[in-house]
Design a protein that fits this description.
Elements lengths: L14 H8 L13 H15 L3 E11 L6 E6 L4 E6 L1 H4 L11 E11 L4 E11 L9 H4 L3
Length: about 140
């Protein structure tokens, strides 16, 4: 005995009807083509919002102090590096002169230097060495 199949046998209903029955629709991902400048600017805006007050510890490398009064160097650890630019107004307030190899902690805003698309941090303050945990308020030392 031959089995008979209705005309729709072996075919699936269109995806739109399945999706409608399930309460959602499928959409192909939209293709967005960015201009380089626009993409870098969007990333910079996001980075600056998320990392407006970052504390970063690392070793000073490639330190430069040009006549402009700005300070430039790389902050690195064993796994990564980030460029640092300290502008003249903040650099004048330093109590020590950084040198290559010095361990420091910088506090500042992470940003993107748009012309090169490079991540950098612009510190407002920094100090040599690691922070002394005994200088924290006593409430910070209590177990939670």
């Amino acid at each position: 005995m031959e089995e008979t199949c209705p005309s729709a046998c072996g075919t699936l209903p269109p995806m739109s009807s399945v999706a409608d029955q399930m309460g959602f629709t499928f959409r192909a991902p939209e293709r967005r083509v960015w201009k380089v400048r626009d993409l870098v600017a969007a990333v910079r805006t996001h980075i600056e919002r998320e990392y407006s007050d970052a504390w970063v510890e690392g070793e000073v490398s490639n330190f430069r102090a040009p006549e402009s009064g700005h300070l430039y160097f790389t902050l690195k650890d064993g796994n990564a590096q980030i460029r640092v630019v300290m502008f003249r107004t903040s650099a004048r307030l330093l109590r020590f002169r950084p040198v290559d190899g010095l361990q420091v902690i910088v506090r500042g805003r992470v940003t993107v230097y748009e012309e090169r698309g490079e991540l950098q941090i612009s510190p407002s303050t920094w100090s040599p060495g690691v922070p002394d945990h005994f200088s924290l308020p006593s409430s910070s030392l209590r177990p939670s």
